[in-house]
Amino acid sequence: MSDLPETTAEAGAAVLRDEDGALRADVVTRVRDAIEAADAGTLRTLVGDLHEADVGDLLEALDAELRPRLIALMGPDFDFTALVEVDDTVREEILDELPPAAVAEGVRDLDSDDAVYILEDLPRKEQAEILDQLPSLDRVALERSLQCPDDSAGRRMQSEYVAVPPSWSVGHTIDYLRDNDELPERFFEIYVVDGDYRLLGAVALDVLLRTRRPTRIEELMDAGRRRVRATADQEEVARLFERYNLIALPVVDDRDRLVGVITVDDVVDVIEEEAEKDIKALGGVTGDEELSDSVWTIARGRFNWLLVNLATAFLASAVLGLFEGELQKMVALAVLAPIVASQGGNAATQTMTVAVRALATRELHDGNAMRIVMREALVGLVNGLAFAVITGVAAAAWFRTADLGIVIGLAMVCNLVAAALGGILVPLAVDRFRLDPAVSSGVFVTTITDVVGFFSFLGIASLWFGLH
Amino acid sequence: MSDLPETTAEAGAAVLRDEDGALRADVVTRVRDAIEAADAGTLRTLVGDLHEADVGDLLEALDAELRPRLIALMGPDFDFTALVEVDDTVREEILDELPPAAVAEGVRDLDSDDAVYILEDLPRKEQAEILDQLPSLDRVALERSLQCPDDSAGRRMQSEYVAVPPSWSVGHTIDYLRDNDELPERFFEIYVVDGDYRLLGAVALDVLLRTRRPTRIEELMDAGRRRVRATADQEEVARLFERYNLIALPVVDDRDRLVGVITVDDVVDVIEEEAEKDIKALGGVTGDEELSDSVWTIARGRFNWLLVNLATAFLASAVLGLFEGELQKMVALAVLAPIVASQGGNAATQTMTVAVRALATRELHDGNAMRIVMREALVGLVNGLAFAVITGVAAAAWFRTADLGIVIGLAMVCNLVAAALGGILVPLAVDRFRLDPAVSSGVFVTTITDVVGFFSFLGIASLWFGLH
């Protein structure tokens, strides 16, 4: 047993992925060959027993035109849950190719949250066509979810849950669970509702299992159970799961009636998604860029950000342009100016990164904003002084002019303090206007450090050396 | 009921936080006043029934010297789980102030994963002192966890779990759960082990509840249950939870014997932590910087990154220095050069951000690396051509020199292609050396774009205008 890999599952899964967790190329090749040979039998053997997440990764690894063919060949053995696991672009391409009847057949057996996830980005007409082919109970649940705002609790919830009245005993509840074959595929707690389906509380399954049969549910239930409105944003939902270590969260309508439940596995995806959006936004990439996008889509998406940056770069250069005379008289200034700007830009990015994250996690708020601004200003001053000395000595030695060292040192202090203040005040201001600080802070902040960097360095130099 | 807030819990929690989810200032003030008046009764009323996460946030909102006093005043009513919820720096300060006996008393009742989390960063001597005061069974479990590597599955697991032999019936298992009062506080599945405690499978609680009493556990259990070695990295664990939508994951030793279980609520924190680390690393901030750190700690932490950047800024300036003659003859070059470098830096950051994230989530791997490199190069070329035209026209108009437009346009194409290649190849190379691409890619990449930007612009200008 000592040569077990770090993580193991069935024997099949062990050969599906290499030690880094990436799909093995030979598995992909075998699947590709089976699709091209239209060999449904081999395909079922290779893919039929895989976890939906593995099927999703496999779909992404295949060429685009093979993906719908795999689904067609697998027929009813294809688990549509796999489509939840692929990139949006990939899913849309696949759904475009499949006939609506096949999609309706495929989503019929899914939990409603998965079905909504697959349907939500389809054009309205196609959506209606598919919904029409579903049993009316399923259709109503899906339509209710789809009417909720994008990225809301109502969109992420599943409509399948277990609810019992408070008067039932533990024994009665367990018997009900044993006899009922309409239960959700997985559940982690049962909900207690009154005659109008208003949520009274919840009972975790381990509590139910530990308790003797005669005990009444209302004695067991957690009546202060946290709940969320269907209209709440998914980011808010994710914060509640994180903060209170939840496994499931009941979703209620505006009259506190239970309409669904969000489970932690969906929230894990939301958390990953939200962090991903912040990372990309800070890097100047739109949140919906995906690895499977075409060159053209990606180039266009990134163009806008670069265009804004170009404008700010010209603005910074205009500041340099103000000092053309000085630059001509003393070319060392042209050589050194980018150092001041670059150091400021990097320091500002540090502060801004911390501020944007702390705002996203609600760690930074009105109550401590003043303290954090002061602290950042001090950090800027401390590092400004440190780098004033280092840069000053280096510049003075390079150009054999002590005065040049003093000038660049002074400019460095100015710019690192400006960087610190810009790095924290800009995200705070952007957040105050209810915009996403991750998306729009960067441009302002680097403009500040470029302009202040160039202006302070060349301005001080101009005065110090009497170049004007 | 229509004026319910979006999320509600007990009445108390509704007034604890404002609509953004931040702690309300007046609550913090009342707690502060109670501590300063040493009024344990009021403090218990205010804090006693709060969720541990709320107590954690409250601790962070208090001045540092009040925190240990709150814990002392609350006495046995203080739930040490709250210490898991605070920043590392805050926790260390608090633990420094508390006598080891009080800490031992406090961690005794915790799940082992929480106890380990509190103890792991303490100095060895203090750790031993606290462990010595615990019952031997608890001590052994904690010591085993603490011996596992930092950030491993063994560190994050809890040693409390429910395990039964395969021969038991459902009825026997439920009776066992009802009669046993040594069960973990919460559990989501039970594990099936042989006589040597080797893991045979798992049964989800909902499966147990749906099944009639005579059925044997071995008929129910999922024998292919995914498991993880105690030495596996927590990031790997998080990927498994995400990919396979797990709620709990059994942890085994090198002989496949069950030693603990990791639950999804801990993994949610790991995912958040890992995303946070990537975001901070990309922004040039060390992963362990926290909002509660002192000016000095933060300034020192950020200094190193800025120092490396300063070196690369000097390198880029040295390239400018090579062209001193040209800059003097044509000062417009000094004014425009930063535009080429800045645009390259931003384009490279876009590519690098996408690459670093895709590497972290294993979406980018050997199998598709070549395709992604080609795609990024094309994106660089497309945007390079677009910005060559825009920048060229703008520069030509500004300095009324058409040739300057052509020169900056050519340099722009060169630098955006270099940016694209650098942005993707550097993270891939860093990853190949098993280093974290988020931490070290940035410096290399912006050095490339600065150097290529300055060199191509001034080199082409020098040739074009015959300035050399």
Automatic annotation (TrEMBL), chains A, B:
List the keywords (alphabetical). CBS domain, Cell membrane, Magnesium, Membrane, Metal-binding, Transmembrane, Transmembrane helix, Transport
Which one Pfam family would you cite for this protein?
A: CBS
Cross-referenced InterPro entries, in alphabetical order? CBS_dom, CBS_dom_sf, Mg_transptr_MgtE_intracell_dom, MgtE_N_sf, MgtE_transporter, SLC41_membr_dom, SLC41_membr_dom_sf
Q: Does the keyword Transferase apply?
A: no
UniProt domain CBS: residue ranges: 221-279
Q: Which residues cross the membrane?
A: 378-399, 405-430, 442-465
Q: Per its UniProt record, what Gene3D superfamilies does this chain match?
A: CBS-domain, MgtE N-terminal domain-like, SLC41 divalent cation transporters, integral membrane domain
**Does the keyword Secreted belong to this entry?**
no
In its UniProt record, a GO molecular function of this protein is: metal ion binding
Tell me which PROSITE patterns the record gives: CBS
What is its biological role?
A: Acts as a magnesium transporter.
Listed name of the protein: Magnesium transporter MgtE
* Species in which this protein is naturally found: Rhodoplanes roseus
The coding gene here is mgtE
